[in-house]
């Protein structure tokens, strides 16, 4: 009896402290990169490859379709039609803009980006690329019209890379069949981990994610492994391969850079920020965000979600406090505008925070650490996609009170928005079946239903 009471006391005490460090011990396995030859290009002359799509406008009526052709610049168009339309005369075309780039001793193939406009909401479309016997066929479904109670499910993946673990993460996510759009937290190919930033790794990465990203949009956020800064080999243009390969609709949200922008999708307003661009006062990113946040209409898009690469709250020894300067600049706005969720990557493990803020800094009162704040976002670090550098398994020993749950495992998450008040969130480690959730919580919307949440973590 006393043993039971003691265990209960310890459990409750742990919960009251707010922090759980998972006892799950990940089976030791290095992040071994899959060889290039395992990502061959599709067969046939000049077959289109590395097909990927993302939202092409502010509200979800356009789609940017991107692909690569290896030998010829032509054809420079995508053919598309509504999936239930059998009349061939109803097929349409969107023309691409085409780019190439050089990176040290690498010359890219032809990279195409075509924006399909004026799509119908909530409709399945087929699209084909290439010609003759090298034609390749794909499909996507447009989101419902933007509205406050529109259910929608986002997948969350960060720091993916192209290792065996990366493949497990993506397969696991796809097996759930629930995700409609991926929010990707940055660090794509890890090409920069190879001599001269071997840009063929950008190609193999494009082939790797095609099984997901050709069929559902990924909302892209740039990480440090997209910088590709290498002055020692004459490469001084920041984000060069990334910007050529992954186009986003930044102008639709009056942004001046593809590295920060926003979109509305279903019942969510999603803001993408750049941890590796200037963000202090008077910089373009600061000014854009300052103007963007008051525009968010919670009656139209109740869920306000921010994506960035470097986390603002992180209790892992890896990259500890790297996000601190951005936190100091942007956190007061996140609280003021009641941001629901902030997702980040960078740290190769999983962590979810309490709703806390650290904006009351006051020397006289001695207030200098995070406190519970119902207007604050929950910060989730989900840089556990697979990467090439291994798992970040060194947490700060005494779990800070702002940290609700943390675990050093690879995985992904699902955010199932149900209506304007409730969203069901689950995190899934790669070793489990999809029916198992390592971390589960009902999130309550900060604008419509700002009650305290409770979680269950296994
Ligand atoms: Fe990173």
UniProtKB/TrEMBL annotation:
Domain of life: Eukaryota
Protein name, UniProt field: Uncharacterized protein
Phylogenetic classification of the source organism: Eukaryota, Viridiplantae, Streptophyta, Embryophyta, Tracheophyta
């Amino acid at each position: 009896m006393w043993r039971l009471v003691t265990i209960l006391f310890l459990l409750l005490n742990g919960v009251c402290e707010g922090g759980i460090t998972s006892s799950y011990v990940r089976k030791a396995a290095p992040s071994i990169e899959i060889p290039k030859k395992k990502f061959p290009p599709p067969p046939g002359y000049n077959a289109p490859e590395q097909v990927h799509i993302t939202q092409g406008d502010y509200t979800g009526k356009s789609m940017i379709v991107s692909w690569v052709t290896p030998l010829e610049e032509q054809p420079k168009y995508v053919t598309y039609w509504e999936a239930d339309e059998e009349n061939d005369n109803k097929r349409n075309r969107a023309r691409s803009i085409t780019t190439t780039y050089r990176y040290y001793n690498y010359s890219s193939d032809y990279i195409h980006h075509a924006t399909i406009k004026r799509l119908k909401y909530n409709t399945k479309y087929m699209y084909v690329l290439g010609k003759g016997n090298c034609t390749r066929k794909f499909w996507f479904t447009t989101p419902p019209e933007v509205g406050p109670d529109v259910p929608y499910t986002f997948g969350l993946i960060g720091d993916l890379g192209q290792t065996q673990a990366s493949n497990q993460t993506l397969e696991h996510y796809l097996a759930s069949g629930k995700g409609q759009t991926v929010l990707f937290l940055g660090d794509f190919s890890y090409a920069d981990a190879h001599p001269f930033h071997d840009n063929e790794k950008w190609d193999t990465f494009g082939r790797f994610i095609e099984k997901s990203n050709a069929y559902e949009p990924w909302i892209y956020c740039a990480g440090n492994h997209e910088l590709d800064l290498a002055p020692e080999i004459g490469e001084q243009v920041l984000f060069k391969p990334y910007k050529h390969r992954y186009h986003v609709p930044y102008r639709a949200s009056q942004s001046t850079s593809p590295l920060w922008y926003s979109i509305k999708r279903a019942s969510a307003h999603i803001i993408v920020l750049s941890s590796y661009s200037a963000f202090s006062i008077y910089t373009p990113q600061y000014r854009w965000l300052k103007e963007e946040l008051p525009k968010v209409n919670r009656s139209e898009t109740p869920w306000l979600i921010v994506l960035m690469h470097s986390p603002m709250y992180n209790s892992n020894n890896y990259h500890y406090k790297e996000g601190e300067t951005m936190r100091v600049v942007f956190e007061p706005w996140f609280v003021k505008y009641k941001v629901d969720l902030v997702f980040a990557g960078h740290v190769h493990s999983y962590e979810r925070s309490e709703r806390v803020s650290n904006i009351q800094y006051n020397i006289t009162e001695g207030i200098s650490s995070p406190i519970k704040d119902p207007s604050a976002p929950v910060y989730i670090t989900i840089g556990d996609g697979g990467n090439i550098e291994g798992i970040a398994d060194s947490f700060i020993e005494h779990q800070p009170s702002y940290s609700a749950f943390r675990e050093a495992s690879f995985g992904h998450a699902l955010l199932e928005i149900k209506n304007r008040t409730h969203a069901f969130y689950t995190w899934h480690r790669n070793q489990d079946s999809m029916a198992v959730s390592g971390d589960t919580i009902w999130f309550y919307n900060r604008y419509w239903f700002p009650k305290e949440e409770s979680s269950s973590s296994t």
